[in-house]
Amino acid sequence: MTIEIKVPLLPESVADATISVWHKKVGEMVLRNETIADLETDKVMLEVPSPTDGILKEILKPQGSIVKATEIIALIEAGAVSKKVVEETSQKAAAMTTTPQAKMSAALPVSQTKADTAVPSSLSPSVRRVVAEHDIDVSQITGTGKGGRITKENALTAMHIPLQTGTRSEERVPMTRIRARIAERLLAVKQNTAMLTTFNEINMAPVMAIRQRYRDLFEKKHRVRLGFMSFFVHACIEALKRSPLINASIDGNDIIYHGYFDVGVAVSTERGLVVPILRDAEKLSMAGIESAIVGFAEKARSGKLTMADLEGGTFTITNGGVFGSLLSTPILNAPQSSILGMHKIQERPVVENGQIVIRPMMYVALSYDHRLVDGKEAVTFLVAVKEMLEDPVRFALEV
């Protein structure tokens, strides 16, 4: 019996998707719930699972095709594989991931393995796409990512042919959908808002002392590391309560005041920057914030973020300091009116009580839409964040 493989229902506001990669070829066996294709939308990656065991009979939409929800993209001949063969294949696949023979297969010549090996599902969607498009042998790539993970840069490097002396090369590749969408949104923000940025600096010594003192106890109790972001989220929420315009947005000629605090935390991925949302962040504990951020980071790296994770938000925090940025002017995440930029902590000489001392300092930047937020409001907010972080007891006392 022939089964139609259709594009799953797309998230709200997403009109279509691009077939990023096919993990199976025509004639290959597929198992029930096995991912056979990845779809790339403007914001998230979607996996297309097989609804049954069988043989991939026909691919109707090749890689790179633009497809819409419920559109038929492939056909599977169900029942073409016996139950015994399916079970044996599943057991063999499981054994290959745990036995020494699995490691030995990486040493086989490309001619013996590549034709029979699908792109490993452990790779991120963006890496799988590059590997599949350019027929790269991943066994010959040394991963430089966390835990030896193969990154997109590793895969692209594997494609490059060594240049001869005196020659120059260039490569033209199309933008991914998410990169094109980011470019479109950032350009629209620059054109449609009166964006301005104000700066301040924060002595991070008090926060660093608290982390040093309670880090082990916090991690033991809550099973998550105590980072800086939870301090900043709490400090921003308290400051937003005092400066509600920073948490507001413009809709036509109206100002929308949000009576809740959905804080977006920018996360960098191989596909681009995404901003998952901490819903009702004012109700989250420090541990709750840290756990949520870790969960978002893991989902982002594996391409599992959903539209529900990304939609909405009343205020955004982005941390360029993790990459070594000392100072920047973050661009607004429309339709929000403000965004806070964190930066690298660096020891600098500062004056305290008439004395020059060395302190771990961080520059912070607040970009805001000047159509809605005045300079006084922006500076007041940033000073409140500074005061909260330089005297964390204020969190407990709510002063």
Tally of strands:
19
Instruction: Report the CATH architecture of the largest domain.
Output: 2-Layer Sandwich
Count of discrete structural domains: 2
Largest sheet: 7 strands, mixed
Tell me what you see in this structure.
The protein folds into 2 domains: 158 residues, RNA polymerase II/Efflux pump adaptor protein, barrel-sandwich hybrid domain (OB fold (Dihydrolipoamide Acetyltransferase, E2P)), CATH 2.40.50.100; 220 residues, 2-Layer Sandwich (Chloramphenicol Acetyltransferase). The strands form 5 sheets. Strands 9, 12, 15, 16, 17, 18 and 19 form a 7-stranded mixed β-sheet that branches. A 4-stranded antiparallel β-sheet has the order 1-8-6-3, with no helix packed on it. The chain is 33% helix and 25% strand. The chain has 399 residues and is an alpha+beta fold. It has 12 helices and 19 strands. The termini are far apart. Strand 13 and strand 14 form a beta hairpin.
